[in-house]
Amino acid sequence: MGTEAVTPPATTPAPAEDSVDRHIARWTGKVPFDVATEAVITRIQLLAKHVSHGKERALAETGLQAFEFETMHRLASRGAPWRAPSSQLAAELLLSPAGMTGRLDTLERSGLVRRTRAAGDRRRVDVELTEEGHRRWSEAMRWRGIAEAEMIHPLDDTDRQALAALLKRMLLQVETRDGT
Question: What's the pTM?
Answer without folding.
Answer: 0.77
